[in-house]
Amino acid sequence: xxxxxxKVYINGKLIGFxxxxxxxxxxxxxxxxxxxxxxxxxxxxxxRTNEVYINTDSGRVQRPLIVVExxxxxxxxxxxxxxxxxxxxxxxxxxxxxxxxxxxxEEENAFIAERPEELTPEHTHLEINPVGILSIITSMIPFLxxxxxxxxxxxxxxxxxxxxxxxxxxxxxxxxxxxxxxxPQKSLVKTKTMDLLNLDRRPQVQNFVVAILPYYGFNTLDxxxxxxxxxxxxxxxxxxxxxxxxTQTRYPGGQKDKFEVPNEETVGYLGEEAYKALGEDGLAExxxxxxxxxxxxxxxxxxxxxxxxxxxxxxxxxxREASVTVRKEMEGYVxxxxxxxxxxxxxxxxxxxxSDRMPEVxxxxxxxxxxxxxxxxxxxxxxxxxxxxxxKPDLILNPHSIPSRMTIGHLLxxxxxxxxxxxxxxxxxxxxxxxxxxxxxxxxxxxGLRPDGMEVFYDGITGKxxxxxxxxxxxxxxxxxxxxxxKIQARSxxxxxxxxxxxxxxxxxxxxxxxxxxxxxxxxxxxxxxxxQEKIVEDSDKVTEYICxxxxxxxxxxxxxxxxxxxxxxxxxxxxxxxxxxxxxxLDELKALCIYPKLNLVDKA
Length: 605
Known about the structure:
Helices cover 19% and strands 26% of the residues.
């Protein structure tokens, strides 16, 4: 009998069975709407598994919806009038069961209408506004309802990577990394969510004049071409801040670290040039220019051992160099020096370095519609294509970026941005509530422009008219924090790991670039197998080892006695073999596991 009954779970824990799960669900929902149950409780019945899920735990994402009964919303004009007069609050609407919060589980069984005119007797809920479907970030994308969902996610992801005016107390902050766009602008095309968040007070975009046009192959694929004149007028210019920190530690023996300019007797002295920017107190002077690998915080530590006997038997303390240096290729100016105390009474110093970042080839820009691209060329203003009125675009986007991605919202924003410029006011493009295209066309026509956003262009290099018309408009673009200056890496020779003797890993350690299996396959595909040998042996960890002809193991090369012999059989019949040191290490590790790796030597063909 119990098998036919529905299982009832509360927060994932089975608490019993019920013969009529649908009636139970209706009863519990009714109790919630009558404020007998808490508004946060969610009840869902899954017909397929014949289970009732009741959730009251924290961490669930809920969203408010208007309750619909018999095809009519419970929220009426009378309620709206009362809200306007201040007689009703949001909490009152929830208590009266007019609005309820659904989580993902309960929403599975709900049939939600977007707009009141779509309601049928089957509907259970109505959206307060269709934009409520979206998250805060996603609802800030103008004309979102005209884009593919994948591009909406792309655009939302890049909101978090945009450089702008993030915080007004940036002078006082000591974030490890921080960015500040010099001339952020209000967005000409906005959404209601931006108003609710006061995004115009801390903007993160600049309004670019964009032409959709190929430009001599420089904007192939996703690359974009930028006007050099616009960069000189501070388009996309920003400051990059990096904070370096050091603590004056106290040691158990009464000794402590000291902030000072290390003298020549200090163990590990870096040379006079490295300490050039330091003041008498061992800290960098404000507004001093610091180059990569220069010291920003001069510090010495006590010796590791308490006494070091100098000449004539005098005990002398030789301090160790423990200064903080600026990262390689991260030069800039000292913006701020801050001193504070830690919980143990240790002095903490933070030095903030500021450097300007102008857009350069390889830097990343993106619109709010997921149309991201790196700068392919920075073109002198006189070489940029221009319209009949002499307008030159700030950015040229490749036409191939549009058809496959179907970001119609991008095109509409360009059109709306153009209309906003002519009308001299912001245009609302909230998803599902946006201004219609005919209205934009009317504004453009009124101001003497073509309604389709097309313009006649002339080539800036040849002066000839470009065949066909070019779609041009004004759209908010973001500069992302992915900058080529922070990512560029190259190496010929450099440090290696002690264990494998292969190049170190990572930009900071002057590491090599990993040449993996797939890269190797491409070289084989190109018939360049000798380059493969060069990359993964010659340039990596090539070593010449002597191998015993009889035993097939690595022989001993005794340089003191000038003797080469096998450690197993003592034979001197050993031959030089070139191999990767990582392979030699593998042989050693196998021997440690009591596995006998044997190399069979044959003559080279």
